């Protein structure tokens, strides 16, 4: 197992796991999920422009490649965020997020049935452990509509497609800043279209709000870049599984900084997912070492 790839996806997952905490601070200012998502991705654009200008990196791409990024990466990444935010209107955030984190299952199904990748017995065992761990994250007393459940499940599918396309269409080989720019641009366009119906976005930000959004955008750039780099080295299946460090990070930050209640079920879920990730990493490493000796 490529250690650089594991580390990159791990860093991405931890940063993504911190983002909900920052988002909660912005909700306290009276913003909704659509407005927060818009500014989060909109501010990525000038930040990336500045960084690429300083580093002499060109953002120019062939028109066909731009369209490909919009259709296969930007659309599915942006749709994931919109679907998940819409689901929050119908079911609890905990339930919606838990259902969304079923995306590794869909990544493996897409790779197996559409791209005919081989799924070995070890991967199947790990997937079962992960599924059991995710079930412990469910809010036991949560009640919600079928609409919210369906939206959350579709968000898992769209994110799975996004992860698979990173690998299969070689988006993972691109410069991370360039890819982040076009994905963020596509996401902003999608959100702006939705805003015509929700009227969520207001264009007057306080200094506090702007500062939080800059931090949120920097976190997003880091997470997107590390996820892309990790996907380049590991492929979609392993990337999706190592990304499950994200909900664990969210739970830890919630307990430490938002004074959320410590729930035994979620701790068991965290332990199962950590065990699955370690089993995946150690097993793959031993296999590679055996192949090298042979």
UniProtKB/TrEMBL annotation:
InterPro entries hit by this protein? EamA_dom, EmrE-like
Q: Where are the transmembrane segments?
A: 7-27, 33-51, 63-84, 90-115, 144-164, 176-198, 210-229, 264-282
Please verify whether the record's keywords include RNA-binding. Answer: no
Q: Which residues form the EamA domain?
A: 4-137, 146-280
Please list which residues make up the signal peptide: none
Q: Which SUPFAM superfamilies match?
A: Multidrug resistance efflux transporter EmrE
A GO cellular component annotated for this chain's UniProt record is:
membrane
Instruction: Establish whether keyword Transmembrane helix is in the entry.
Output: yes
**Which controlled-vocabulary keywords does the entry list?**
Membrane, Transmembrane, Transmembrane helix
Question: Pfam families from the xrefs?
Answer: EamA (PF00892)
Q: Which domain of life is it from?
A: Bacteria
Under the heading PANTHER family, the entry gives: ACYL-MALONYL CONDENSING ENZYME-RELATED, SOLUTE CARRIER FAMILY 35 MEMBER G2-RELATED
Family membership: Belongs to the EamA transporter family.
Q: What is this protein called?
A: Membrane protein
**Which species does the entry assign this protein to?**
Amedibacterium intestinale
Question: What broad taxonomic lineage does this protein's source fall under?
Answer: Bacteria, Bacillati, Bacillota, Erysipelotrichia, Erysipelotrichales
């Amino acid at each position: 197992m490529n250690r650089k790839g594991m580390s990159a996806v791990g860093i991405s997952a931890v940063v993504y796991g911190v983002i909900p905490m920052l988002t909660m601070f912005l909700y306290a200012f009276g913003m909704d999920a659509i407005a927060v998502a818009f500014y989060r991705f909109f501010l990525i654009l000038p930040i990336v422009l500045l960084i690429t200008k300083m580093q002499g990196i060109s953002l120019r791409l062939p028109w066909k490649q731009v369209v490909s990024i919009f259709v296969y990466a930007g659309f599915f990444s942006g749709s994931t965020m919109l679907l998940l935010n819409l689901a929050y209107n119908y079911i609890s955030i905990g339930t919606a997020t838990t259902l969304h984190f079923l995306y590794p299952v869909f990544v493996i199904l897409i790779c197996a049935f559409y791209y005919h990748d081989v799924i070995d017995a070890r991967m199947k065992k790990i997937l079962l452990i992960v599924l059991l761990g995710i079930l412990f994250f469910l809010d036991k007393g949560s009640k919600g509509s079928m609409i919210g459940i369906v939206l959350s499940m579709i968000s898992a599918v769209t994110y799975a497609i996004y992860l698979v396309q990173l690998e299969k269409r070689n988006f993972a080989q691109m410069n991370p800043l360039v890819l982040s720019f076009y994905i963020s641009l596509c996401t902003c366009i999608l959100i702006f279209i939705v805003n015509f119906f929700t009227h969520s976005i207001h264009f007057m930000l306080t200094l506090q709000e702007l500062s939080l959004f800059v931090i949120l955008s920097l976190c997003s750039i880091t997470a997107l870049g590390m996820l892309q780099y990790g996907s380049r080295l590991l492929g979609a299946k392993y990337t999706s599984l190592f990304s499950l460090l994200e909900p664990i990070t969210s739970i830890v930050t919630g307990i430490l900084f938002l004074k959320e209640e410590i729930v035994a079920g979620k701790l068991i879920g965290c332990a199962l997912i950590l065990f699955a990730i370690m089993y995946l990493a150690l097993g793959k490493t031993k296999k590679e070492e055996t192949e090298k000796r042979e």
